[in-house]
Amino acid sequence: MKYRIVAASTAAVLTATALLSGCGSPDGDGSEGPSAENPVSLTYWAWAPGLDKVADLWNKGEGKKAGIKVTVKKQASGDDLVTKIITAAKAHKAPDLVQAEYQALPTLVSNDVLADISKEAGDAKGQFATGIWQQATLGSDALYALPQDSGPLMFYYRKDLFEEYGLTVPDTWDAFAETARALKKKAPDKALTTFSSNDAGLFAGLAQQAGAQWWTTGGEKWKVAIDDPATRKVADFWGGLVKEGAIDNQPMYTPAWNKALNTGTQIAWVSAVWAPGTLTTAAPDTKGKWAMAPLPQWAAGQNVTGSWGGSSTAVTNDSQHKKAAATFATWLNTDPEAVAALVEESGIYPAATAAQTGGALAQAPDYFAGQPGFYTEAAKIAEGTAPAAWGPNVNVAYTAFKDHFASAAKRKGDFGTALTAMQDATVTDLKKQGFGVSE
Length: 439
Fold this sequence. Notes:
By secondary structure, this protein is an alpha+beta fold. The protein folds into two domains: about 10-150 and about 310-370, Periplasmic binding protein-like II (D-Maltodextrin-Binding Protein, domain 2, 3-Layer(aba) Sandwich), CATH 3.40.190.10; about 150-305 and about 390-435, D-Maltodextrin-Binding Protein, domain 2 (3-Layer(aba) Sandwich). Helices cover about 45% and strands about 15% of the residues.
């Protein structure tokens, strides 16, 4: 499904220009400002569980003092919410605030949905890792959202089976490949992991770690660099392992994948900080047998990781109370009490660095009870989060990934050809929508 519908190329250029220059947010609230005597009500569209409970803390505390009441209206996530918010904005009926995934922000900005709140919340910058903050600014001076949660990539492995087969936790991708081959020699019926084509988010995060910047801007044009040397290195690495049979080529999140994890047929998984929740469901019989380590590096001694997932809190251009909305968004994602409530009620891994250890994250996930320093290690990994560069048609790129990489993985074919097809599909769609694209 395409998010963005533009009837004329002129309109497309204008919205693209607004994105590049960081425009689109009028100053002021459109009111005299809220107070206890002159309260305002804000509506927040979001999908994370328990956000209504977190908003209640605001409404009973800081919000009551400031005269700002927030009502959370539960929505579907992902593509559904993006489509719904764009439709609402075109009718000038968007809510005051919306929970938005990082990769959706350029699409929402290019559709003139989101306001620039840099004047109201820009001083929050120091509370987030540089790579995370960049995703909310789109590399400009404008600020289109407050980071809420993040998904730094890391390496999960069955520590008991690594010990049984005499394997060492890989600290580089070369060592990762050798570990996969060593396991195959010792246990041909097992695989270190699998390459999955049903979720482009993981591949995007791995490309970010390698230094990829898939969408960038210059002047009034977009540059698409999905088929760049960094991403090609990643594609060739994983494609080579699949081709030689060193790892599996089956998709994640299927009954067969769950069984492979639960029975020890697959003994490791490159995933994000939220993986314990997935493993709890997918591999319940292996609780306590897993451990987490930093993502393997392209060069020994580095600390660089990519992101898989994560969302933010954005203020819309339709809001008549932008300052009030920005005040709440800042509180929600930086105030210690608020962020602790987000962890406890919504189960997120907070983007705010101060909240990534201690407090609600003082103890390891129950599934990883044998690794008490889980979140301390995760916070160190998150410090090295590489910046991501998203564009206005991420959905098209992700669909192309699923189509072309699924075919390549199934037949153990050339991943480079699939990557070129992904690049071509993304560029073609941008041009079709009327965006200027630099070759």
